[in-house]
Every structure is written in structure tokens, then in C-alpha cells.
Fold these 2 entries.
Entry 1:
Amino acid sequence: MTIELKWGILGAGNISCQFVHDLCLNNERKDGAVRHIITSIGTSSSQKGSEFIEKCDINSKNNEGVIPAVQSYEDLFKNNDVKVVYIGTPHPMHKSQVEHALNSGKHVLCEKPFTVNKKDAEYLVNLARSKKLFLMEAVWTRFFPAIEFLKKLLFETRKLGTIHRLFADFSYDAELAKLPPTSRLRDINLAGGTLLDIGIYSLTYGRILLDNKLGEESSKFQVKSFLTLDPTDKVDYNSSVIMKYANGSQGILTASNYTDGPSPFARLECSNGYAELFAQNPACPEKVKVVFKDGSEPIVYENNTGYNGFIYEANAVAHDISAGRTENAIMPLAETLLVMSTMDGVRQENGFVYPHDY
């Protein structure tokens, strides 16, 4: 049976364009049992919406015969042809937009970070549950085939043995001096800095690869951290977090806007060998190489599908909504709250406060 899911895309920026690319490619290829139909683009101006449709090449051929409406945010929320809203706007806008979508009876997939802090995240989780609507933070990394492959080696077949240590880094040279102070990376009022933008991915690898449990069931861990706050912008551009689990395994989880990161961007060390992860963008792992201490043939997994990688979470959302589920098993709301709480703790440890925290 083919599942059809009608999407409203809120925000006409780069991340939303990458997301709809995957939906349209899936439709064009007739991949799998899901067809994603983009029915509305919610933007601040009709011109921006029209340019988005053209730039992202959304057409009747790859969108199941539909040309999406260009609408204001308010009109998108009222649109009866929108079943689920994808929110790809700047961090501080998420809370009010998710709230508005839920109050309009829409299911929601919201980009990371879900909110600026755990307090706001809890409010939205409780709202979604009260309305029995689907809600998920778009942590696309968790849904990649490469991650599924590695997790099976770690937690099902246990071919790598005991997990000892993880190094994971997400860094790139953002050329901060060339950006205006109003840039989303620099502006504290836009929840700028490294931790919420890319450090969240390093933390996510610490959660994915060091623990096979989620949310309230997760293994106990401690966190020690350092953030380097820019004296002018007052936001963090260097983030270093050490995560130690009760079983002794450790994650050294870093992020920076000052310099390009290494390749492989992550290395997981275990009793029987190690695994390395490769990608152009550490948020979307493309290749895993596993090397064994006993000299066995290394295992290499590589994903060359042509998708950006958003299709995996989008398909998961479609299956969940079709089945009447209001949460996803791979990225449940309790896991979102756990990671938001961890980032709150890192900021508190380093005296880093956003205006949105008050």
C-alpha cells in the first residue's frame, strides 16, 4: 500500500530546500511505499516562496502533480491540505511555530535544535501529547543507513566487543569575521554559537554510539564541558564536552566555527577494533570503516543513493502518522528532552545564557 503524506514547508531557506530535494527525488524515482506531496510553502513574502519553488525545482512531475501554494505562515497553518508541517526556520522561532502548528491541528517535524532550552521543549511535548498529534525533532542523523549499520555491529552482533571511547568532531571555518553581527551564527538573539547549531550533532553521536537506550531509559552519564565565548558576540565558537557513562565508556565531543574538522570526523574505539565515520557534513554520515584487531578483513559501508539524507526521517514520519503513532521510536520526545537538558547543563556550567532563557 502506498502512503501519501501532504507537507507544508515552513521557512524557505537552505535547510528546507535540502529537505524538499529528497522528497521530490523520492517521488520521481518512485522509491519505496511513500509519496511525499508538498502542498504549501510558508514564507515571509510571496516572492521568496516563488523563488524557493524554482530554486528547489518543485514541479508537477516530482510532486505528484501538485504545484505548492505560496502562503504566509498563518495561511499555511490554516491550510486543510497540509497534514504535517516541516519547520526549517532559525532556532528561536521554533517554539512559537510548533505551538501554532499544533494548535492548528497539524503534525510537526521541527528542525534541531528543537528549542533553545529544555523548558520550552517540555511545553511543546506536553502540548502535542494533549492534542494527540505527532511531534518529532528532526535529528536526521539517527535515521541514516550508515548509523543503522554501525549500531547493528555494536549492539546486536557485538562484533566490535566492548565500547571504550568515542571521538566525534563537527567543525568548519565559518569565516566569522566576514559575517555581519546579525548572522544567525553570531547573533545571541538568534541563539547563535556552536553548541546548539553543530555541537548538538557531536552530542548526538555520544548518545547514538555509546548507548543503545533512549530518553528516560538511557544509561546514566556525566558531563564535563568547556565553551569559549566570544568577547564581542557573547556566544560560543568552541565547544568541548566529555561524556562519561556508568560503564566507563567516554565520549570526547567537540565542535568549532574556527577551523575545518578532520576526516574521519569520528572514531569509535572498542575491545575488538575501531570504527571510523566519514562525511562531507558530519551531520549526514556517508561511510563507515570498521577495522578489527585480529586482522580480519575490514568492513566498509558506503551510501551513494543521491539523497541528501532527509528522506530517511521523512519516510519514518510518514509511516508513523499513517499508523496513528504520535512519536517515533528512533527519535522519541524523551530523547529530545534529554539532549536539551544536557545542552542546558553545558551552558550553565560555562555561564552561557540566552535571552530566551528568562
Entry 2:
Amino acid sequence: MPELRKDPVVGRWVIIAHERAKRPHDFKSEAPPRQESQVCPFCEGNEHMTPPEILAYRDYGARPNGPGWRIRVVPNRFPALKIEGDLNKRGDGIYDMMAGVGAHEVIIESPRHHVSVSSLAEENLREVLWVYRDRLVDLKKDKRLVHGMLFKNVGEGGGASLEHTHSQLIVTPIVPISVWEEMTGALEFFNYRGRCIYCDMVQQELSAEKRIVLDSPHFTAFCPYASRFPFETWIVPKTHASHFENIPKPGVDDLGQVLHQVLGKLELALDSPSYNYIIHTAPFDHSELPHYHWHIEVIPRLTKVAGFEWGSGFYINPVPPEDAAAFLREVEVVPSYAHTALRERAPGSRLQPHASKVP
């Protein structure tokens, strides 16, 4: 018998279709990715093919906008929003509008043409997380900007236009509706119970154990009770925090390992599917919120959203999250070490961020 499950944060209902249940091997891999041109603009040596970098983690002696980097941030060549200009908020009758002011940046996660995150080292992912934090902290200073969303698209089904592993940051002058819904639902729970719903969710999932994918000192990864998609996985901090950019060093160290494990499990279990991950964090113009909790949502693209989903707001998930979590728990990911993804550092070398202004 199918089940209707209610998401406790936003109130969205999901259909868990037990009778249509699929096992991991029932999901066919998508066709191989389309062939790109032989020259990749994100590979080391092709820095001239991107806009001038905003930030880079480099080896000592390496010059800006040239080789010698480990992670590089550049403006998107075709930005959804642009940093220049005033908001110019205005109305047209019942309609509201403003200028498309914001930021759209690309975080190139490795100088090598890696396609799979599981081929990166955990240390590489930790540096990526530090770059995420650095960019949010910097853009938060711009009073025109309100919210930063970090996300990664993998594979054609996930919306990736280039194979080379990268993620993106889009900063907007308004709070996205999905974040607003989460904040509103979390606030209603807080006003009623006096507790953070995400903190309660972590404790209940750890107690029940049925939907846990992995547990670490600082984070819990689980398939949410009302999963919208097969093998959807959330990574939630155990300690309450509303803003990702305030993550401390022990959190970054642990999250690099957790993110590597979760993505590696999905790639191994599901034959390298397309997927997205999104970091949900509180708006810049809010101080620490007792009711909201930053987290990462990882969404494999194994099923299609069609007419019923668009028309009703329901999602149909053919894999119960309990089954998905049980399967992922059994998948072992062999740790990758720094030399597989980061260049050998000379004795005495250390991180050397280089920052420049967006032209």
C-alpha cells in the first residue's frame, strides 16, 4: 500500500510508492555524457579561457590567472545575475520588479579534468568547503545582497554543461522561496515547541537508525523521512547553526570526509548518476537564528518530474528512504589521499589564497 508522508519542515506531502519500489540496480545509468571539445576552459593551463579569477588557492610563487592553483573561483561567463548596478526596486501596477543584481561564480574544484567527486581527495574537498566559506563571508559585506546559494550540478541530468568538476554560487538580493518556506516552517515549529526542528530531526533519526547513511562526530547523513527522490540524502550538523559561513575548522575537516563518503556511496551504488547538491543556509541579513539550521541536500536524478508532480506539488518516490539508507550504509568508499588530487607541495609550502576584485 502506498504511503503519504508529510515533510515536517515545509509541510510538503510525498507519495512513497512501495508497490512501484525499485532496487538500486533497477535504475539504468543515463547515456554517456556528450563529448566536449578537446580544450576544457577549466583545466590548468587554460586560465585565459575564463574571466579573471576572484579567488584562488595557489602554491607559493604561482601568479594570478596562470597555472599553479589547486582551486579557482571565476565569474560565470553567462551569469544569471550581475554584480554591477543598483537594485532599482519598482512597481508596474500589481507587479514588482528590480534590477538583476547579484553574483554568479564558478568554483573550479581541481586543476585536473576530474569528472567524479569520488576521484578527488578528502583534503581537496576540505579546501573546496573553505572556498565556499570565504566567498560567502566576502559577498555578505555587500548590503545589496541577501542570500547565497552554493550548489553542484553533476551529469546532463543534473544540469551540468561542462564535465570538469565544479560547483557554483549564486547570490541574490532576495531570499529564494524554498529557503523562505523552510525558515517559515521551522519558525512555526520553534514557536510551538521551543526547539529547532532540524535538531529534533537529527536526534530522532539517530534514535531510530532506520534512515541513517552515516554518522560522524559533527554531522549526521540520512535519507529524510519524506524523501522526494530515490536516495535523496541530507547532511545536517549535530550542533545547531543557521549560517554555513560560520562553520569552524573542525566542522570543515569533518564535513570534507562526510561529503566525500556520501557522494562516493551514491556514485558507487548507483553507477555514477547525475545529481545535485545544495547548501541551504540562512540569509545574510539575519543574525544567528535559533529556529533554522543550515544543511546540505544531495539529490540523485534517477526519476523524472512530470505532469502530476508539477500540477500537484506531490512527489512520487519509488524507493522508501529506509531501503535507500540501508543499501547506502553497506557501500564502502575507499578514502582518496591528497596526492591523487592535489599537487605535491614543496617543503614549507602552505595555502596561498589570492584575491582580486570582480572586473
